[in-house]
Amino acid sequence: MRLYPFDVCLEAAVELMEKGATVNQQFNCAHCGTKQTMDQPNTFFERGLCERCGGETDIRKNGCNYSVIMSI
User: Where is 16: in which H helix or E strand?
Assistant: First the structure.
């Protein structure tokens, strides 16, 4: 997954949320490389724990992405 700066993702996600979208932050584990999706929608975290290896990732430093669910 391609990663983008934390603040860039947050700004774009807020715009989508204001339009009614549900956004889930994603990041790659800095330890094992596994793609992770946060369980709590419409919230961005600066750190994340890997469900696979248990390692902690500094998302602000490493970057992130997000998934979007939007009703039509």
Answer: helix 6-18
Measured distance between the N- and C-terminal CA atoms of the chain, rounded to whole angstroms: 26
User: How far, in Å, CA of 41 to CA of 13, rounded?
Assistant: 11
Per-residue pLDDT tens, the chain, 72 aa: give them. 999 999 999 999 999 999 999 999 999 999 999 999 999 999 999 999 999 999 999 999 999 999 999 988
**CATH topology for 6-69?**
Rubrerythrin, domain 2 (2.20.28)
> What gap in Å lies between CA 13 and CA 33, rounded to an integer?
23
Virtual torsion, Cα 18, 40, 34, 67, nearest 10 deg: -20
